[in-house]
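Most newcomers find our protein records easier to grasp once they have seen one. A learned vocabulary of local backbone shapes supplies the integers on the structure line. Here is such a record, shown just as it appears in the course material:
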Amino acid sequence: MSRIRYSAVIALAALVVALGGGNATGKGENAAAPVAKGAAAAPTEQSLVTLEKSAYEAWKTRDAKFWDTFLSDRFVGYGSSGRLDKASATREYTGAECTVSSYALSDEEVRPLGTDVALLTYRTTVDATCGGQRVPSNTRAAGIYVREGNEWKGVFHAEAPIVDPKAAPATPAGMKETGPMVEARAADRDDATAALMAAEKAIWEAWKDHDASRLGDLTADEISFINIFGVFYPTKADVIRDWTGPGCDIESISVTDGVATMLSPTLGILTHTGAADGTCFGQQVGSVWGTSVYVKDGDAWKWAFGINLPARRQGG
């Protein structure tokens, strides 16, 4: 799928993305069920990788028609200026003046998020320029696919450039902090968004308090996470160890601008903006564009996967 174009390296100030991430299937209601007769078979890793590569090829060739059938009407993701829906994603993936010399995917992993939803995480290596500027050559990416009829369609995509946190400047040249995203709908606008926002705030509070026990209770049995520096944590133990490790001293947190995209009554994607008042490794933390996948376990929403990006855009 078309990559997110960033023209500057990521700020260490956004180290707060030690929050959010993983792919998992919750217990109980969201457990996998038999596939209905005549429905599309569960995707293999190779089939999802093939689909993802076809999207990169469409980005390379600026094939605007491709996205109409490839993307779900429920698509949500993040691009160079913030949250995307299907229409804005199509414009982003085809409207930029990009010259793509090569692209490659590696380290692919596929995990089910439910009966009709699958997550693909991978690493990209790209040689490309957009708008005359080089795009990050290495990223960690996540794509979520949903079964619609007999087809699997892209319903989420985002990429985190792989950078060295110690080498990232606190304020990248040519970048500035953003306010609320222009196209974002109101936070807590419906019951689903309110429920997932409450669950997300609990995760951030537990992160602030370095509370491994609470984080364990708030997350699904199997999780993984891509942080703002493009680091991939593939297991629950890895994620919680990262979130509760030394380095961050946080006084308060803020989770706003939430929008829930429900894929089923027991599975939803929450896109939001997160921020914290405090420091990580001596640097003031900044805002992030966060994405969290939640699965329902009984009456509780459990955090199952996440990827966070710097809440920044180009500007003067």
